[in-house]
Q: What sequence folds into this?
């Protein structure tokens, strides 16, 4: 499930999902170095888009066959899951 997290006026996708989806969605992959209090440095990856394009990118993700959860203020506000249905004859 792809998690879209609201960050101000943008929605972001983080981690492995960002790595595999940024190019498919046509958005830039961002890399940020994070230094922890123990001195260890990690690279955090993300990609994002403005909230005005939320419907557009949810549509793309669903067409890619991905389930989507939209988070605002740490809470799920919308969940889009694909449902496979078999045709009856």
A:
């Amino acid at each position: 499930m792809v998690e879209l997290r609201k960050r101000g006026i943008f929605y972001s996708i983080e981690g492995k999902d960002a790595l595999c989806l940024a190019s498919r969605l046509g958005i830039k992959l961002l890399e940020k170095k994070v230094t922890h209090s123990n001195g260890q440095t990690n690279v955090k990856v993300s990609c994002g888009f403005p909230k005005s394009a939320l419907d557009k990118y949810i549509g793309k993700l669903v067409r890619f066959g991905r389930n989507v959860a939209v988070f605002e203020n740490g809470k799920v506000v919308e969940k889009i899951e694909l449902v496979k249905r078999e045709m009856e004859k």
User: Anything to note?
Assistant: The beta strands are 2-7, 10-14, 30-35, 41-50, 68-72, 75-80. Residues 2-80 form a domain with the MutS, DNA mismatch repair protein, domain I fold (CATH 3.40.1170.10). The CA atoms of residues 23 and 29 lie 8 Å apart. The first strand starts at residue 2 and ends at 7.
